[in-house]
Structure to design on (211 residues):
């Protein structure tokens, strides 16, 4: 009887030792003894979020635009063919005809073979090229007023006369022309570029609004 009492005390001491206190070994021993393992406890709350990482380095700045660079707002190209256009000699004060329309956005238009409408107040880049037989000059006129700063020409030779100017308008629907300056001798636009050519030569008037 005494021996059984000592054995019970020994078993009780083992069951209350740390080996059985919610350890894997204790759970294993309970399972071997036929006892049920308890239900796991609920997970604790999530921890607080960590601190945000440092900001990345700034990107490389873009290349700045060119200040004051002109844009292309409206444009038209008008041309003449010789022959048959501009067959007659052009007297001083008369205008050169460019009766055909090339590339255009249909803002700058022709109101006749020698007159061209600048609809918007602004600055226009104007370029013309015309074959002329004689020593001669050509000039732009705006609203029938010749622009003295646009006169170009040559004293000898038979090459093209080329002019490039900026024209600023102060009224809408201004009219631009390329003229033989008043008081000058007549000039002739030849039918071909040279005696060896059989295709009509072209004269051009290109107008671009840049502001």
């Amino acid at each position: 009887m005494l021996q059984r009492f000592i054995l019970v005390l020994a078993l009780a001491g083992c069951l209350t030792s740390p080996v059985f206190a919610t350890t894997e070994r204790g759970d294993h021993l309970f399972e071997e003894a036929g006892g049920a393992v308890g239900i796991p406890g609920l997970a604790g709350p999530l921890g607080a979020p960590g601190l945000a990482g440092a900001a990345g380095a700034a990107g490389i700045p873009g290349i700045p635009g060119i200040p004051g660079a002109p844009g292309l707002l409206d444009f038209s190209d008008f041309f003449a063919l010789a022959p048959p256009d501009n067959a007659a000699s052009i007297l001083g004060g008369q205008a050169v005809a460019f009766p055909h329309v090339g590339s255009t956005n249909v803002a700058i238009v022709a109101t006749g073979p020698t007159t061209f409408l600048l609809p918007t107040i602004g600055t226009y880049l104007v370029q013309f090229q015309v074959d002329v037989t004689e020593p001669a000059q050509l000039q732009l006129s705006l609203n029938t007023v010749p622009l003295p700063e646009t006169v170009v020409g040559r004293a000898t030779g038979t090459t093209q006369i080329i002019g490039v100017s900026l024209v600023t308008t102060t009224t809408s629907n201004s009219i631009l022309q390329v003229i033989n300056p008043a008081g000058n001798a007549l000039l002739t636009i030849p039918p071909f570029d040279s005696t060896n050519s059989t295709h009509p030569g072209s004269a051009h008037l290109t107008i671009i609004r840049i502001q």
